[in-house]
Amino acid sequence: MSINLKIEFGIEYELKRVNYTLAKLDWFDSQGYRTRLPEGITKESSEDEIKHQIANEFDEKKYKKLADQIGADFATVSTQLFKTLREVFGQDIPETFCVYLTTYGVGGSYNLPNTVIFNINNTRGYKTIIHEIIHLLIENQIIKYNVQHWEKERIVDLILNSKELSFLEYTEWQNSYNGVEKYIDDLFNSYFFEDPENFFSKIQHARIFA
Fold first, then answer.
1. What is the C-alpha separation between 142 and 194, in angstroms, rounded?
2. In the 8-state DSSP scheme, what is residue 119?
3. This prediction's pTM
4. 51, pLDDT greater than 80
């Protein structure tokens, strides 16, 4: 058993991605995220202007080449990843994740139940896709326990940098987590791999008294 990626791309999806990015641009800016938009496009641009510029910039050969590379790279860890994630999370792991390639927005994002959006300008390659897969696997607990943005980002990076997933050789950390590591790390080390639900249930209390 392994995890498979269904990789897709196209102009119509790019239009959705640009509109989504424009709608959340203020939030992305406030959180320090760098975003990419078609050249000359702003929140004041019309739909026709956006479509026209996306079409001008779209390079199908570039997307196809990257899709093949991601698929090949991911295949080297897909079996071990499936086995390990099933052991860690004690739940059914989707066998297929849909990956949409984009030139725009932030480096990566996700939508339940099994969709990953990957920015082709992201140099971290398939490891960013795995980062988003971890987000998907914990998203129900994130919602249930009202876990905040930087808390969940720290949790995902702690999971990926743990000895349990050391075969990934994942060494990425964000520049800042807004200080949440002061209470998240101890909780994570004490509870996550033994009782994930208990770990998530304790975050709000820890945040209050941090």
1. 18
2. E
3. 0.91
4. yes
